[in-house]
Every structure is written in structure tokens, then in C-alpha cells.
Amino acid sequence: MARPTPPKPAAPPHDMCNVHVSRPMWCRHCANHVWGHGKTAALCKRCGFVCHLSCSDYAFLVDCSHSPSPSARQTIDELLGGDATILDWSVKDVQAWMVVVGIDLYASHFDTVDGKRLDALRENDLLGLGIENEGHRLMVMETINELCRGSSTQRQPSIRARAAAPDGKPRAHPPLQQSMSLMSNRGIEGINPMVNGHCFRNHTYMSPCWCDRCGKFMWGLVKQGMKCKRCQLNCHRMCVIDDLPDCKPGLGSKRDTHSALPPGVVPSFDTELNMLFDVKEKPAPGILLKCIDAVDKKGLQAQGIYRVAGSLGEVKSLKMELNKDPEKVSIDDQRWTDINCW
Questions:
Q1: 303 exposed, middle or buried (CB, 10 Å; 0-12, 13-18, 19+)?
Q2: 3 state SS of 3
Q3: What contacts 172, CB < 8 A, 6 or more positions away?
Q4: Rg (CA), the chain
């Protein structure tokens, strides 16, 4: 009689600790880079498993080993014993980080910027480096602030993960099959639409946008994150794999319009008229008066004024500024010279 095969011994649990990464590293769970200010990574001291802090709850999906590979041992030694900081970065290190976060369009402009100079940069300095686009300067500066100071602008998330089940028990981890399916789809155009009904796609935001899940800025200049094509939910790639609420198609227009507004600002779009103006002071909402004024000054002789569409990028940029405060928007601003955008 054949001897039964002994059961495979259970893998030891990970011995996780929070660490600072001196250079961008791959998250073993969501397959996105780990970077930022302070202790932004979780490390297993036994096997060298590295992930985002927010991904550490899912470390159990990968077995731990007491015998790490030479490269994993090097990672452990670097993260536990290294004292290198951003100030020690070379110009090549800075440019490599720019590729990671999606602002490498201006990498050639940073050919004299090392870690010390990067830490000292402010928005006016970016103009001196040749970044003339105001929106791009804002996006690049927000990304630098997050890396060097951990102080990028943050918004109140418009959604929250379901922290508890209906019976009050802590939320369960996603099924192993679903999590592995999500991980295997990283880096391609679509992510598994099984995520609570969402259907995410890589998306390029033409104006500053914040993650609806964590409230942090959407880094980069192209394909900064994921947008659900059904409900228009905006998320970092690393936030897509976290526990999201069910997809609710039809809520997208309001979320898209309000995503970049500072706290406390009443948006000009999707707001009741009685909240936008007082009939005793104005004949109509400020945004309507501004658009009428623009057409009166520049559009009366324009051919096809009511049927020719304006540039999508200019329309989105103008809409964002009008949403903040129509009174501060200048008709003569060179950013929206096309009258069809109004």
C-alpha cells in the first residue's frame, strides 16, 4: 500500500512592518509603484514582500518564505538599514521618479535638478524650468509636494469603503480568485468589471482631479487613474482593488463636475438656482451672465456660434474655473480664446 503524501506545511505568516522607501518600488499586491513621503510601504522582514500600506491587508494572498532570494534580501537590508533620502537622489533618480508618476513629459527640463533642488522647488521655479502650461505646473507641483513633504492638496472622498457587513462584523477580504484576477489585469486597458459592478478603464484627466476613494490628488499628466465608464467613479489604480461601494450608473456627471472644487465652494453646475443668486441683486446667475457677455463681445460675428463645438480640453478647463467662481473668470483670458467654448 502506497504511503500517503504528507500534507504541505502551512506557510508562515508575514512579519510586516512599516518602512520608508528611498526609491520607487513595486507593490507586490496591486502592481503599482510605492513612493511618497514618510513610511509609505509595508515590508515583510522574513521574505522581502513589499506593498502599499493600504495593500498590506492582502499580504496573506502570497505565501511567506523564510529563505528570501538574494534580490529580496537586498531589498530587506535596504529598507531596514538604509538611511538614504530624497535629498541624496541624483538627477537620474529624479528623472526615473518622474517616469514612475507620469510627469516625464518634462523630464528633459529637469536635467539639472537633483534631490536637493527638487525638495526646494516651488511653483514659480517650474515656470523658470520651462513648464509654461499653468495646469501642468499645478499637477507637477502637487506631485512634488506629495513626494517631498507629504502635503499635496487633499479633498474629502466622495465615497467610502464598506467598513462593516450588515451584521456589524468587520469586512471580509475579497475572494482570492477576484483579487488575483484584479492583480493580473494591472497595466492593461481594462480592469475586471466584477468589482461591485464597476467597469474601470485607464483615463487621462485634462484638469486636476482627486481620487473619489482616498481623496488624494490624481498624479501625473496622462492616464493618472481609473474611471468607471458606468458611474464615472475616479480612483487611483491602487484604490480600485480596495473595497468599493456598488456601481450606481447616473451619478457620474455631478461627480465629474465637482471633483476639483476646493472645500466649501458651491458649484455653479448641478446646483439649485436659488442657491446661486439673489433675484434682488442679479437678474440671473453669474455664470449665465458671464457666458452672455462673452458671446456679446466675441461671438456675434462668429459663424456657427450655436452649432460648432469648442475644444474639449478648453471646455473642461473653462468649466472648472466657472464652477469655482464665475466672477473671477476673464473673457479675455488666453486659455479660452475659442468663443465656441462658451
A1: exposed
A2: coil
A3: 165
A4: 24
Dihedral sign from CA coordinates of 292, 297, 301, 307: negative
| CA dist., res. 257 & res. 310, Å (int) | 18
pLDDT digits (tens, 9 = 90+) for 156-166: 666 644 433 34
The number of CA neighbours under 13 Å toward the Cβ of 248 is 8
Most confident of 104-113, 275-284, 295-304: 104-113
CA distances from 183 to 117, 160, 177, 299 (A): 36, 22, 10, 51
Q: Go through 142-155 and write b for each residue having 16 or more CB atoms within 10 A of its CB, e for each that does not.
A: bbbbbbbeeebbeb
Pairwise CA distance, residues 43 & 21, whole Å: 10
pTM for the predicted model, two decimal places: 0.60
For residue 218, how far is the Cα from the chain centroid? Answer: 2
d(CA 56, CA 279): 55
The one-letter amino acid code at 228 reads C
Q: Are 242 and 211 in contact (CB under 8 A)?
A: no
Residue 221 pLDDT > 50, yes or no? yes
pLDDT tens digits along 257-293: 455 555 555 667 656 666 677 778 888 888 888 888 8
